[in-house]
Amino acid sequence: MDIKQIDPLKVILRVLELLIVKPLTIPFKIYKNALTSLSNAKAGDTEESNLLEEFPLYVWFVSIFDALIAIAYPVGILAAFIAAIQAPFKGFQIFMGILVATYFYPLFLGLFRELAQISLKVLLYLKLISKKGSQAY
Predict the structure, then answer these.
(1) Axis-axis angle for helices 91-136, 56-86 (nearest 10)
(2) How far apart are the two ends of the chain, measured CA to CA in Å?
(3) Which parts of the chain span the membrane according to its record (predicted)?
(4) Which of 71, 57, 64 is nearest to 41 (CA)?
(5) Mean of pLDDT values over 95-115
């Protein structure tokens, strides 16, 4: 790629998007995905349902992260109100601080969930490969 093909405006816009916009939108997407995952938990085509027989503890461990993400916002909002009411001074600052921390908490939990899901997907793929290998004989 030639240096003349680089558009500085596009580079700056992309950097701003990655550094400002994405971190502000990803927590809500993670929250929405956790709610969707919990509502589709009984579907037969998920990794969890396919591996539940062989690895029940591990599937439960991965699913716990979805449950923690799902309760993060209601509990965080409630904690913010309680802390703001209980604070003798700077109640609004405490309220906003807890709300900001609560908003970004799914990022932290989502990272650990995705790391655990990677190994769950590897287990699923190994199971599928072993089934195909046994069918070939």
Answers:
(1) 170
(2) 49
(3) 57-85, 91-112
(4) 64
(5) 93
